[in-house]
Amino acid sequence: MEGTGERPFSSEPGPIVAEELRLLARTQEALAEARGPRRGARPDGEGLRALRDEWNTAGEEDRPALLAQMHEERARLSRARVDTLPDPAAPYFAHLRVRVAGRVRDVLLGAAPLLDGKRGVTIVEWRKSPIAEVFFSCEEGEDYEIEVDGRVIEGKVEERRLLTFEGGALASITVPGGVLLHEGETWRFEPRAWAPRLVDPTSPRRTPETRNPFITLDAEQQALVDREPRAPLLVLGSAGSGKTTVALHRVAALRQRFPEVFPAKRMLVLVPEPGLRRLSERILEGLAVEGVFVRTFEDWIRAEARRVFSWLPHHEPPDPPFAASRLKRHPALFAAIDRLIDEGTSAIARKLDRLLGFRGALRKALEARDEPLLRDRLRAIEAGLARETTGEKGRLLREALAEEQDKLARVRGDHRRLVGDRALLARAVEASEGDLPAGIVEQVAAHTKQQLAMTSEEAYAHVDADRLATLDGRTLDAGTPEETSGTVDVEDYALLFELLHRRTGASATRAGALSRYAHIVLDEAQELAPIELRVIGRALDPEGSVTVAGDAAQRIDRSGHFRSWEAVMEALAVRSEPAFLETSYRSPRPVVEFAHVILGADAPAEVPRAPREGADVLRTITAGEGHAASVLCEALRHLRADDPYASVAVIARDEPSARAVHEAVSRGMPCRLVRDGDFSFGPGIEVTEVSEVKGLEFDYVIIPDASAKVWPDAPEHRRALHVAVTRAMRRVWIVSPGEPSPILPSEEELRRLGKLHR
């Protein structure tokens, strides 16, 4: 690791080791007593007291059963008590010595608390205790001030030590300037930094001026911007190659050169996440382009669907099952829609046969039709059988067919059947050829059933509204399993437009029509499902153009079902040969090569060109989450001093991990937990998850949870880590609490790659 920034270690190992061993011995004694039976203490718990009361009044025949229940309850209480105690194999990970009001206190940090005043043992929960913040935020010799129960307590840090254990025995002691390592019967001192210095010595420091996101285009990129305005453009390239830049510069060029053909209000930019939406808006603003719609796909299609399908429920479920999203976005659902159209055709034919007395002739004629659109099947019968049928019967048939065509835009019933009928869902599973599990049918059907159920407000509509009001202003079903009632999934919006098109051949109802645009940009298009791409394609004017940008190696949505770029363009109903951007401008060469190896079998044959050199990727393995939090805070504190205007993204795998990391890091220094794309795009430390950072960039990227448990070896995790790492413009630091992730490149892999491609 790089320089320490800490005062040098000058003491002999002996006194420190002896002190820590004495403290460990006292802790182990306190733990042994806490885990054993408490002499003279009466068992606690309401259940146990109730059983004792029953014992006092029970007959002899009932007492054996009560005695067995009392034993079980005592055992349960004992287990609950033991489970809240520190782990004897590693009872704590840090030792903090402070001086408060002239007295010295030793505080240990661990996952669970323990207090034994007789032995002078104090273990506090590192995630909750106020004194733990002192360990993460202060260095030795510094004064501190914390608030505890409304009182301000001041003190001074005298010692800070990180410790590791092996089988309950002390294995290492990290002190300022190095670490004491237990080897056999001896201890030795090894100079080592507490945490690495992250600052990139090869790059100049940031200045207070805001970073300029408006990159100058190279000749290759400019040529793509200058393509024929009505020609579709498919831009592919690795992370940081300028795909988004090209797409937005093309919007600016079309707007400025052909304002009458491409007015701002008829141009649409679709991105997957709010963070990329905000960045795209900033870039367009810098390019002097105003009025262009920049939306996430979800926000756009939600607004379109709620205008066109006025009957839609007002709410979406707070936590829909992944199974529903996976199936509703799967291409195999088209097979279920085909069957639904066929069944709708048969239903119309049977009804008209019965009403008009065609004795099966109409049904036979309709069921012989195979046009994809139900409207076209009815029109074909109108042009054929209806014209051949003379007199009153022919007139009635033509009127009946016209009436059925008027009803085609009513897709509500078909939608309910599509997502709730087990036979139709099973047809999709069958068409997936093993990609969808059979059990998904029951999951989605049950979810749909709950969505179609009445809400409590509907069920109790006869009750005075004031009596149904809740104290927190939420609905009656909020926080209950019935919260899903009366909702619609965001994935249903594309389904509704697909059903509407398959029935009517159009994208309009009496309430409204799908918006049409002269130019559409699809950024990170690999994340969109085929059924969503079809809706976007229908929103494009017949004479309009489209810019599609993406990278298959960056797909991280598990329900997106990307197959190929040919399939993407086919779903959009446009044709274009791909243009490849092969130079990665964002990240330096060490980051580009590291990210390439992460992809494993999915990596392109060639490593992207990286014209800029830079600092190597840093990697740190810690004994656990507490150690990782300490090292993170230490390194970030130094980075903030070394490069105060740098943007730093701490990118965790998912939302729970991001929240846990933010909770830990915020104990030692200011940082923001970013959700819904609320990035500052400026200096500071922001903690987030991978799905939030598509298309964004930061000076420094830290992966705080790169363990085998959080990042197992699977293609989706490889692609996600690739996305996270390639957000860095300067340097990447990988922190592995516990066993490192198996998808991290080995030093040998990186050396071999360097020899091949340099």
TrEMBL record:
Residues 216-588 form the UvrD-like helicase ATP-binding domain. Keywords: ATP-binding, Helicase, Hydrolase, Nucleotide-binding. ATP binds at residues 237-244. Pfam families: AAA_19, UvrD_C_2. Coiled coil: none annotated. It comes from Polyangium mundeleinium. It comes from the Bacteria. This is AAA family ATPase.
